[in-house]
Amino acid sequence: MHKFTDNIKKVIIGKDSEVAVLTAALLAKGHVLIEDVPGTGKTVLAKAAAKSINAEFKRVQFTPDLLPSDITGINFFNMKSQEFILKKGSVFTNILLADEINRATPRTQSALLECMEERQVTIDGETHALAEPFMVIATQNPVEIQGTYPLPEAQLDRFLIRLTLGYADRKSEISVLESIGSTHPLDELEAVITAEELKAEQEKCANVLVGSAVREYIADIGEATRTNERIRLGLSTRGLLALKKTAQALAYLNGKTFTSPKDVKEAAIYVIPHRILARDYSDRNTVEIVKDILNKVAVPTEKTQ
């Protein structure tokens, strides 16, 4: 998958860690929420990832007037053939970019729940399987409040990881200014991996060993989030599975055949914060809470293979 990450880095400069974590989510068959202020490269990162795979890609601009049927599809009556015909929605693709997902109403946001978790969509009582691979990359601006609808906890839990790109450093920004002229590097990006190759990589990633000591370490982290006095809602069992899958993927990206506590700690910063709720509204920086928990939970010292 290094050719995949290297391809994205042609466009996204100075964000190697974020590109690696997004790749890990793809390997783990997860979905990604990219949350940051405008102009930091959220949409460009999503498009670069999609263009690097020789698979179908669709982009939906989420707005208040977007309907659930625009996402899932609808059966319409064909007057000529006198029968109902399925008009497939945007989710019938491999990579779906849900741009500014918090601008759509909760009703429309919820249309993605079944699609993201069960890889299927139900329309008028009939269930349709989605393509493989299937990944949702959603973006949102956390600063704007007017005209937005915050994602509920059940929706946030569907995202394997949450990424924050932040502003690029001075050197990276100068490189961006130099690279973008009459054309954008994204326009010249070509696919470097096929959908079939990606599926094979995903299967290999799922076979990365997670030893008993590491499994217990993941469970200890989950328990720590549920008993922490600063946290009102701790990590669920699905969250623990997400932590395990992401750690496996990060280990696989680093060429390892087993998962270590270091992989778990790296994954935790992207997997846990959006799945927990702080008790105090002023204590909203859940990333710092997670870092504090990781510093307190005992790390396994025995062999992790």
What key phrases describe this protein's structure?
305 residues, alpha/beta, 5-stranded parallel β-sheet, 13 helices, 42% helix, globular
Please tell me what the overall shape is: globular
Number of helices: 13
Order of helices and strands: HHEHEEHEEEHHEEEHEHEHHEHHEH
Mean pLDDT: 90
- What's the assembly state of these chains? single chain
Task: Describe the model.
The longest helix is centred in the C-terminal third of the chain and has 17 residues, at 237-253. Helix 11 crosses helix 12 (261-271). The chain is globular. The mean pLDDT is 90. The chain has 13 helices and 13 strands. By secondary structure, it is of the alpha/beta class.
